[in-house]
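Check out one such.
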Amino acid sequence: MTTYSGTKEFEGATFVKASFKGATLRFSDVSGVTMRSVDVDGLDIDSHDLFFGSLLVNGVDVVPLVDAELNRQFPGRELQKAQTPEGLRDGWVAVQSAWQTTVESTPRNMVDAHVEDEWSLAQTLRHLILATDAWLRGGILRIPQPLHEIGQIFTGAEQMGFDMSIFRTDTPSYDEILAVRAERQQLVTDFLSTATPELLAEERQDPWGGDWSPTVGDCIRVILEEEWAHLRYIRRDLALLS
């Protein structure tokens, strides 16, 4: 099948009686797309940014419905939006408990298994190490080089100019990943244990160099969003693999 990458040739285009059956779109901008009289049986949409906008299906914005259903499936997920130290602490406990269940129930022979083009459990845990490093050690604590060498950076980072020499090129053992992951989890636990409303309101800089100026609370909420999102991804993929 033909692969289209880095193209804008379809912006504003109109497709009439065209077939996209079985097509795959990754890291693509489909905002503002209008679909009328289309067959959507089996259409599978997965968007981490879904909750920052709207998605209309037959005139109904389904984003609130999806959000509510995910909160039902993942008890405690709603606390990723908490504004108080107590709420964020409870949210952190909830997501770490959920992660513990997944890690402990996954056989060792499955930790490196993955669905095509998706991360394995081991890689996902490495990415969460990176997320904690970026938003807690970098964003909140302002450590100049906060990233651990076994972190798994997001796809396309090298093309965006990020310094990849920080990261190891060999594959760390699963036990090493678990050890560093536990250290990073404890860092968040310790930070939240003494966090105050005043501290959460302090302004910081985007650790990835963007023009957003998040508060300390915003940085913690990003960590929580990353934790819940990747838990959903890996549970989805492990279910498919099993």
User: Anything to note?
Assistant: The CA atoms of residues 89 and 232 lie 20 Å apart. The chain has a mean pLDDT of 92. The chain is about 45% helix and 0% strand.
